[in-house]
């Protein structure tokens, strides 16, 4: 039975800009697009802002696309009015974020990159020039150049995340220099720097053509950000994203510096993962309450002061009237208070940093082959045996397969206690923090982010189990403790988990762990009853990867039990379960995995032979064999990838061999 392949993560595109809108009573698309040609800059800005709000609703996007919204908004990126540029960039950003891959492809086809690249370069040139006159700014404290750049960078991130042509244009047009110039503003505008860092991660992934642009000067910019001592959660996120970018361009690092570079990257990840998100939520929620209380008290004090001032004015007609609301007191701190919801933004940044760190660690454990982006559940008895025979290298202490950790990465993993910190993140979120989020509408979205971090940690654990030797993981006792921990995650609650993402992550980790333990003859801590309960829950999941994992888990556990005494009854239960899955499963890949697991369970041993006879396994498989062949002919090419078809062909061949093997046992009973 084969191992599951590790999963590679790609960064999720950024969210739309601005607050999400309901169904606004706005002018129809045609009228708003027509207003983009109005001679008044204020009207053009209004039109861009209205379009931006509407584009956050997916159902209105087709109406705008039919009216060529991209070509209408594109020229607005270079409008004479800075306010129009910013709102136009925001509208295109929302279109790319809410429209998805097909819309981003269409935007690139409609040549959004030409004005976007021009805007990015122009903003970069004017970033330090301080050329903005008061006439062009309604607010003296607003930096239009940086705000425009932030919207444009997010738009660039979106289209580059979804479209390879956009990445090629980024590379060929030399956009890296402009983007890195924005990054230099990280000390005064961390939000802009975070947007740039997200974009850099997207354009540097699997992009060898860009590597030559990362000269010593470019690398120095990234290194400066990585060494930034600021401790806010936004800066933690920024450093994490930059570390991910440096990992993407690792081929530009001299071999002699590779070890220190990897260690620096994992140190940043370690620092990010060391922060307790639950405690941070509790602390930040309390800070928010205190801030709002101070703000309310300051507002009350100001109102009382206004009343007193107005009374004083009425008593003395000769006094100059003081404009209402303009009174400043010596201890007035209202202007110094943080911006709205900064505490929530800090927690969000932390969770994003931890999710990003975990995803990059998963990618560090994965093959560099881009085809590994998706789960490919490939398995067969013959392939598995060959894999286990050829992949373990006693001298290196690593699994020397396409999924392998270099010596530098392996050493840095241990030095920075990465496995320990990943394990901590696999636990369920802090119950007090969850309660805070549950009862605070603006904090409620954090619950999903907390759960995502847990799932990423489990996926990370799965990847590490695939590529690390038992001794590197702490030995047999550590693996048994890990098995107990994972079983507690599954069985600690009254009902088995149903969330598809969690089930996929936990079953993947369990599958890799049990395979590792079985290969080293380490006794497994989960009882057959627990495993069957988990598999009963998992086999009904809509996620095919979960179903593949649970039948594989049963196959691993069954093959271990087959070597023990008095296990025939349990093997019979496992066998019936797997046989039923093979016969009734809608997915051909899952059915093949179930057959593969059956071969492992009943491959050898007196107890397995006894159970096979009692459950009449041989006649059942002989009857099912032509059905499986027919399914492969009819459904194989439609449902399966080329690699999956190769594995299924192997399963079909092994089914014939296994039937012959069972017939031999029947002729020569022992």
Quick take:
The protein is mostly helical and 670 residues long. It is built from 30 helices and 2 strands.
How would you describe the overall organization of this protein?
- The protein is 68% helix and 1% strand.
- It is an all-alpha fold.
- It has a two-stranded antiparallel ribbon.
- Strand 1 (392-393) and strand 2 form a beta hairpin.
- The longest helix has 39 residues, at 277-315.
- The protein is elongated, with a radius of gyration of 30 Å.
Total of DSSP H or I helical runs spanning 4+ residues? 30
- Tell me the span between the first and last alpha carbons: 27 Å
Q: What's the rounded overall pLDDT mean?
A: 83
CATH 2nd-level architecture of the domain at 519-669:
Alpha Horseshoe
In percent terms, what proportion of residues is strand?
under 5%
Using only CA atoms, what is the Rg?
30 Å
Low-confidence stretches: 20-26, 132-141, 315-338, 368-404
The spatial strand order of the largest sheet comes to 1-2
- Under CATH, the topology of the domain at 519-669 can be stated as Leucine-rich Repeat Variant
Write down the overall geometry.
elongated
């Amino acid at each position: 039975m084969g191992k599951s392949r590790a999963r590679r993560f790609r960064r999720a595109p950024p969210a739309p800009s601005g607050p999400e809108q309901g169904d606004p009573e706005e002018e129809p698309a045609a009228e708003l697009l027509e207003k983009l040609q109005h001679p008044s800059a204020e009207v053009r800005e209004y039109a861009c802002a209205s379009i931006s709000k509407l584009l956050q609703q997916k159902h209105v996007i087709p109406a705008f696309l039919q009216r060529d919204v991209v070509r209408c908004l594109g020229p607005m990126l270079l409008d004479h009015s800075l306010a129009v540029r910013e709102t136009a960039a925001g509208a295109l950003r929302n279109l790319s974020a809410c429209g998805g891959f097909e819309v981003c492809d269409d935007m690139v086809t409609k040549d959004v990159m030409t004005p976007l690249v021009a805007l990015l370069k122009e903003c970069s040139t004017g970033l330090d020039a301080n050329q903005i006159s008061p006439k062009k700014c309604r607010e003296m404290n607003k930096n239009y150049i940086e705000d425009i750049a932030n919207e444009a960078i997010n738009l660039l991130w979106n289209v580059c995340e979804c479209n390879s042509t956009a990445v090629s244009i980024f590379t060929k047009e030399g956009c890296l220099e402009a983007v890195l110039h924005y990054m230099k503003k990280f000390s005064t505008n961390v939000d802009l720097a975070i947007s740039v860092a997200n974009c850099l991660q997207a354009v540097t992934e699997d992009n060898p053509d860009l590597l030559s642009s990362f000269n010593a000067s470019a690398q120095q910019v990234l290194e400066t950000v990585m060494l930034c001592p600021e401790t806010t959660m936004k800066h933690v996120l920024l450093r994490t994203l930059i570390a991910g970018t440096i990992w993407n361009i690792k081929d530009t690092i001299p071999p002699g510096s590779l070890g220190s570079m990897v260690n620096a990257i994992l140190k940043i990840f370690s620092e990010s993962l060391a922060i307790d998100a639950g405690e941070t939520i509790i602390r930040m929620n309390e800070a928010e309450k205190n801030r709002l209380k101070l703000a309310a008290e300051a507002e009350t004090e100001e109102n009382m002061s206004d009343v007193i001032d107005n009374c004083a004015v009425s008593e003395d007609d000769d006094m100059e009237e003081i404009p209402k609301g303009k009174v400043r007191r010596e201890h007035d701190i209202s202007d110094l208070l943080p911006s709205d919801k900064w505490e929530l933004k800090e927690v969000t940044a932390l969770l994003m940093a931890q999710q990003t760190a975990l995803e990059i660690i998963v990618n560090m454990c994965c093959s560099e082959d881009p085809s590994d982006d998706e789960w490919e559940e490939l398995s067969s008895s013959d392939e598995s045996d060959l894999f286990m025979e050829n992949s373990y290298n006693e001298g290196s202490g690593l699994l020397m397969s396409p999924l392998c950790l270099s010596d530098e990465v392996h050493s840095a993993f241990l030095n920075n206690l990465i496995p320990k910190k990943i394990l901590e993140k696999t636990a369920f979120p802090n119950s007090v923090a969850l309660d805070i989020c549950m009862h605070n509408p603006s904090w409620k979205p954090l619950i999903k982010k907390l759960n995502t971090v847990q799932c990423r940690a489990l996926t990370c654990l799965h990847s590490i189990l695939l590529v690390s030797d038992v001794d590197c993981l702490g030995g047999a006792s550590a693996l048994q403790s890990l098995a107990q921990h994972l079983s507690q995650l599954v069985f600690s609650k009254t009902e088995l988990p149903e969330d598809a993402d969690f089930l996929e992550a936990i079953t993947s980790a369990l599958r890799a762990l049990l395979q590792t333990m079985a290969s080293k003859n380490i006794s497994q801590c989960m009882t057959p009853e627990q495993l069957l309960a988990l598999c009963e829950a998992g086999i009904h999941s809509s996620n095919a990867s979960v179903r593949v994992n649970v039948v594989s888990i049963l196959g691993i556990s069954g093959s271990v039990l087959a070597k023990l005494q008095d296990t025939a009854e349990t093997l019979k239960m496992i066998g019936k379960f797997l046989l039923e899955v093979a016969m009734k499963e809608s997915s051909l890949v899952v059915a093949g995995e179930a057959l593969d697991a059956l071969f492992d369970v009943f491959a050898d041993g007196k107890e397995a032979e006894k159970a096979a006879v009692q459950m009449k396994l041989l006649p059942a498989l002989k009857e099912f064999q032509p059905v499986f062949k027919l399914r492969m002919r009819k459904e194989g090419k439609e449902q399966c990838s080329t690699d999956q078809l190769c594995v299924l062909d192997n399963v079909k061949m092994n089914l014939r061999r296994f039937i012959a093997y069972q017939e031999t046992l029947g002729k020569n009973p022992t």
